[in-house]
Amino acid sequence: MGQLSAVADSVFDVSIIRLQAAVALIGRFPALAGIDLDVGEGEVVLVQGPNGAGKSTLLRLCAGLMRLESGEGTVLSHDLATERPAIRRSVGLLGHDTALYDDLTVRENLDFWAKASRVDASAVTPAMERLGVADRLHDVPVALLSAGQRRRVALAAVVVRRPRLWLLDEPHAGLDPSGRDLVDQLVVDAAAAGATVLLSSHEVDRTLELATRRITVAGGTITGDVTDAR
Amino acid sequence: MLADIRLVAAKDLRIEWRSRVTLSQVVPFALLVLVLFGFALDANRPVLDAATSGLYWVTVLFVGLMSVQRATAIETTDGARRALLLAGVEPAAVFLGKALAVALQLLFVEVVLVGGVIVLFDASIESLPLLAATCVVASVGIAAAGTLLGALVAGVRARETVLPILLLPVLAPVLIGATRAFDDALGTVAVDGWAWLGLLAGFGAINTVLGALAYGVLLEET
Questions:
Q1: N or C: which end of chain A has fewer CB within 10 A?
Q2: How far apart are CA A113 and CA A136, in angstroms?
Q3: Contact (CB, 8 A) for B135 and B110
Q4: Alpha-carbon gap: A106 to the closest alpha carbon of chain B (Å)
Q5: Which residues, numbered 50 to 79 in chain A, qualify as contacts with chain B under a Cβ-Cβ cut-off of 8 Å?
Q6: How far apart are CA A139 and CA B196, in angstroms?
Q7: Number of structural domains, chain B?
């Protein structure tokens, strides 16, 4: 963790996410009701809050998947109002859905997403090995996997993209202890490599070990922001 | 763009091949519909002969609905639509790839159904080129309109029931044009089938262009 802090301290001055009075709607409901947030390069930010607070919406907004209804924002130097396609191509999002095709095998799914993302196919095998889905599971249809195994494959799809910004929504959910440790190590390694990580989790104790900063979201606004959360 | 179209179409066709939905469910369903039409009208043989083309294309529309439902479900079940946006695949390529896969599945079922009307309804083919061209062009039109409307209802909770209500009226020109062209190809009614094929081609072209332009907006908003 000390190594991670040293890397993070040196690069925090570069802004990766900058939101000013950001409002995002789900239907007519303001899921984000005026968020101000500035996240620097290499930061590992834990987003915590109760169910329905707006954590997932915040991650999806930062992924360029939601329209910025009002306010301003940039992600990876791209304007959230006008350059969402460029943002999407640069981030890695693990959402509640795994975005896997049931009738394709693990390998076929990852090959498809690598090609679709214009990523070198040679990145697939190392990612599968890293997530422990290379040996027994590579030619198994995703429909036959457990929820935890699906989660690992979805994480492998994020790893394949080598994103500069990782957006992880409940990344530990459904994983066994070894899988949870693996997620922690992925976050540490991503941050050590200079990537920025925004993750939401209800496992606050566990995630605080990883985070350099903790923000609390409630009612669509940020109600707490603690740097050096550990 | 072409590589993305191929990628999406190959993915959908591979999923179809693995799941065997077309082979094990859609084809038997389509043949069953033909058999039931035969039961209903066989007592009046001239009516059945005159109605063969229309019954064939009504059956194809049912099949088209099932194929489009399935193609839409592939992307909506586990959030793959969002992942396609994140991957940066051109929405037009997603649309064209998915429509191509649906069209190829439809063509396969149409070939089986032609065998069905020959065996069950005692139909004969007077113009194979017209029949083949009608199948290809109508499949493109059905697939394009279906894929577009499938994306439109993707975010709707009761999309399985909403899609037929939206799609069947839109496909009325296909039903009319393809039936007339088939009447000519099967020699059941003296009409200019090639002229009706022109109508079908126009419908297919308009829906393909419209779909390629609008699919991105639908991916974003639904």
A1: N
A2: 20
A3: yes
A4: 13
A5: 63-65, 67
A6: 48
A7: 1
Minimum-distance CB partner of B15 among A65, A93, A104: A104
What ipTM was estimated for this complex? 0.89
3-state secondary structure of A32: strand
- Mind telling me how many Å the CA of B4 is from chain A's nearest CA? 7
Host domain of residue B213: 2-221
**Across the interface, do A112 and B7 touch by the CB < 8 Å criterion?**
yes
Give the C-alpha separation, B92 to B217, whole Å.
10
Whether B11 sits inside 8 A of A101 (CB atoms) is yes
Neighbours of A218 (CB within 10 A): 15
Cα B28 to Cα A58, A89, B21, B32, B164, distances in angstroms = 47, 42, 10, 6, 20
Interface contact A102, partner B, CB < 8 A: yes
**If you average pLDDT over residues B72-100, what whole number do you get?**
93
pLDDT per residue as tens digits for the range A151-187: 999 999 999 999 999 999 999 988 999 999 999 999 9
Residues of A55-79 as b/e, b for ≥16 C-beta within 10 angstroms? bbbbbbbbbbbbebeebebbbbebe
Residue B111: count other Cβ atoms within 10 Å of its Cβ.
12
Task: Sketch out chain A's domains with CATH numbers.
Answer: 2-227 (3.40.50.300)
Rg (CA), chain B: 18
